[in-house]
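Reopening closed ticket. The problem is back. First fold of the pair:
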Amino acid sequence: MKLHDLHPAAGSNKPSRRVGRGHGSGRGKTAGRGTKGQKSRAGSSIPAWFEGGQTPLHIRTPKLHGFTNRFRVEYIGINLSALREVAAGTLITPDVLKHDRLIRDQKTRQLPLKILGGGDAPKGVTIHAHAFTRSALEKLAAAGSTAQRLSWPENLPVEEPPEHASDDGPGELSEEQPKVSAEAPEPDATVEDAPEVDAAEVDTPEAES
């Protein structure tokens, strides 16, 4: 093999495109760049994200600032001050508040009701709502009113668990539970308590022989 026999593989060496070499070449005059315009000029370099001057996509897209809880529950709230003139013994429910126009009627999106602690609490009433603030519960208890929490969206009464266990220690044993005797068990007989045995009375194998 001679030096002049060496050549690249077929298709690996592609000749460059010849432009601006007359009409007969098919790429004469404008050399495939078209007539005038920004892209026809020398040195034209437009980034891929350029949109002609309008606000680009990466600017008009809203940015993520902070954290959004997917499980957040939105309530419609009402302060105790709106209920302070209610007569004692009245039962206040979400339907009653909607009827009296104290809360808006949600036609498109139903929201649970939450009682807020603003203002003075009504005395001797029973309020059914889906949530209560801590200050609202304290004011209602001080005014002698009752707060009943409802489930959402069933609107059924929810039984509240007991707040704290008894601080007096463990409760008394029931009749079924066996009582442990407080008397200490008698100690086993020790060696000192065993009766003394006379050595003459003990028969040994040597004496028999």
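Second fold of the pair, where the issue appears:
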Amino acid sequence: MLYGASSAGVRSMTASSGPGISLMQEGISYMAGAELPCVIADITRGGPGLGNIASEQSDYHQVVKGGGNGNYRTIVLARIRRRRWRI
């Protein structure tokens, strides 16, 4: 759906968590090859299916390094959260 909307000239956006992004890698590669613009939000979550409840760096590496067939670069906008430790 994202590919079709973007190729029709409509602003397109989708969101998923790490496992969903893994399943979308082929479509993301097609969109990169066709040079179609889109916004994809990768939401890191803990819960069933991930094996643990702690977030890992696999989502980060998958988005930054580019998955699928490669041979393309992605623009990644990430929020930096700073914590203040109080004793």
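Update: turned out to be a display glitch only; the data is intact. Residues 6 and 62 are 22 Å apart (CA to CA). The chain has a mean pLDDT of 77. Please close again.
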